[in-house]
Amino acid sequence: MNDSGKVVTALLAGLAAGAVLGILFAPDKGSETRDKLNESLADLGEAIKERAEEQFDQLNDLKEKVLSAVRAKISKTEESLDEEIEEHA
């Protein structure tokens, strides 16, 4: 994971922990606190899901770049090999 990914992950974890602690120490009724916790957890779940999708997209992009580079190298190698064969034939 790159540095910006680590920072975002740490930020999300810190926000979640702060939200949970803030809700737990707030002077609300138990049912209100549970509702707030459920809402916060749902928001955190969405944030994690979005981050995972971004990382998945980045991995797919990297995969495509690597495959393209490998295909280019194979093609270049095949051309060089064909030239060598023609020269020695």
Verbal overview:
- The protein is mostly helical.
- The protein has one domain (3-88).
- The chain is 92% helix and 0% strand.
- The protein has helices at 3-25, 30-88.
- The protein is rod-shaped, with a radius of gyration of 26 Å.
- It starts with a helix and ends with a helix.
Record the SSE blueprint:
Elements: H1 3-25, H2 30-88
Helix pairs in contact: 1-2
Descriptive terms for the model:
mainly alpha; 92% helix
Give the distance, in angstroms, between the N- and C-terminal Cα atoms: 50 Å
State Rg: 26 Å
Number of helical stretches of at least 4 residues: 2
DSSP strand (E) fraction? Answer: under 5%
Put the structure in a nutshell.
The chain is an all-alpha fold and 89 residues long. It contains 2 helices and no strands. It has one domain.
